[in-house]
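Narrative summary of target 7.
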Amino acid sequence: MTKAEIVTKISEKLGIEKGDVQATVESFMEEVKSSLESGDNVYLRGFGSFIVKTRAEKTGRNISKNTTIKIPAHNIPAFKPAKVFVEGVKSNVLVK
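Modeled conformation, tokenized:
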């Protein structure tokens, strides 16, 4: 599902204009992004958490030059779904 499809579904369900829904969705995504960029986690009860994870420094390999490289420690954004969310997906989605 794309952002445009989400906007269309919300617009149809609530009877709000697509432009207003799109502005709301984009504003929500921007707030989550700016919170994570400032180091704050975002917790949405019943849905999940957008968190900042720290990856440790590690040694990697450049296969083409056959050399080792050092990958520095860094932070990445991650999503951890709520238990209710996980159980809903497990019980409603068929295994492919």
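The chain has a mean pLDDT of 95.
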